[in-house]
């Protein structure tokens, strides 16, 4: 009889044990909303980054093509790199070690090799990889040609080596660059950045040349389409 009158503990405890409070449901629902928003934001960020990279690559390859076309109209140019510009001159100092390669690079900065193509060829492997935020490719001759062609699109330029760092497997050169392009609206490009020079373990020459810009990629691209103050003052 006592057992009949005693409440069944299981029947009273089960609802308490398994029921979820309204507060807990609300909190869980809010967490789900935050998670979905975070995933959506991440997806949009990836899509935006991919779009920017696509635009930048189109601009990069477009500028390379424009430089090649412009080279045909340069005085004394046949549109191809001459044998003299691609060979290693006997007068060039031999780069027999990393220290000599580093000194050669610093001298190349004094000649603004980024826009003149006037660089020490013996400091690089022939199949050296060249990379920047827009893309990458292999081949020393192509890099030299691109630098020379880009320089032909400039009215004036300035490039200064601001700092040099030596690490175990690479060196890093920090630089400041500015130029006025010879387009009708005379756009001004200005940026700071750094280049990583990776050395081949056997030859000591540069096997990888990686540029980094300290400005957003699209911001640098927009500078090309912005008329300089000189144009507005002239009008």
From TrEMBL:
InterPro entries: DUF2358, NTF2-like_dom_sf
Source taxon at top rank: Eukaryota
Record protein name field: Uncharacterized protein
Organism of derivation: Carex littledalei
């Amino acid at each position: 009889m006592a057992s009949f009158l005693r409440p069944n503990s299981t029947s009273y405890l089960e609802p308490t044990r398994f029921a979820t409070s309204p507060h807990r449901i609300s909190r869980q629902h809010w967490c789900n909303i935050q998670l979905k928003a975070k995933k959506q934001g991440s997806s949009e960020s990836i899509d935006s980054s991919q779009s920017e990279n696509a635009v930048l690559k189109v601009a990069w390859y477009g500028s390379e093509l424009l430089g090649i076309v412009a080279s045909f109209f340069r005085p004394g140019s046949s549109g191809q790199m001459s044998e003299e510009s691609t060979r290693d001159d006997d007068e060039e100092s031999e780069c027999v070690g990393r220290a000599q390669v580093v000194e050669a690079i610093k001298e190349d900065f004094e000649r603004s090799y980024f826009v003149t193509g006037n660089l020490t060829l013996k400091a690089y492997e022939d199949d050296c990889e060249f990379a920047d935020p827009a893309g990458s490719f292999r081949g020393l001759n192509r890099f030299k040609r691109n630098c020379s062609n880009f320089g032909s699109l400039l009215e004036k330029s300035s490039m200064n080596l601001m700092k040099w760092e030596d690490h175990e497997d690479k060196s890093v050169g920090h630089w400041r660059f500015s130029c006025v392009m010879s387009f009708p609206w005379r756009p001004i490009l200005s940026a700071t950045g750094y280049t990583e020079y990776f050395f081949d373990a056997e030859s000591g020459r540069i096997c990888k040349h990686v540029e980094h810009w300290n400005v957003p990629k699209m911001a640098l691209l927009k500078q090309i389409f912005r008329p300089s103050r000189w144009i507005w003052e002239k009008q």
